[in-house]
């Protein structure tokens, strides 16, 4: 097992996704500051946060639970980005770029979950 959560590839990809999400949502309408922007950012931050918290747990069973929560946050984030696209807050290209990163991280977390 990894000694530090920061050594996990899925954690690092999660952090990079958070940075991308913050940059993307900075262009949203200001009236969404406490709505969609806040929700999207919380979902994104939840991904690497749950990976880190799960890593600190004593058992693989506990770690799996936190990975499952991270996977749920990925689905939540994807849903919120679909809504953002449908509201024309992001372009098709922006959506596809971020969605590809989400899909990659979903595959990685599913694989990691299976190995725990």
Describe this structure in words.
Helix 3 packs antiparallel against helix 4. By secondary structure, the protein is mainly alpha-helical. The chain contains 4 helices and no strands. It has helices at residues 9-25, 36-55, 60-86, 92-115.
Look at the structure and give the mean pLDDT.
95
Structural class: mainly alpha
User: Count of DSSP helices?
Assistant: 4
Q: What's the β-strand tally?
A: 0
Strand percentage, roughly? Answer: under 5%
What share of residues is helical? Answer: over 70%
Shape: elongated
Q: Which regions have little confidence, pLDDT < 50, spanning 5+ residues?
A: none
Gyration radius, in Å: 14 Å
Q: Describe the sheet with the most strands.
A: none
Order of helices and strands: HHHH
Distance between the termini: 9 Å
Keywords for this structure?
116 residues, mainly alpha, 76% helix
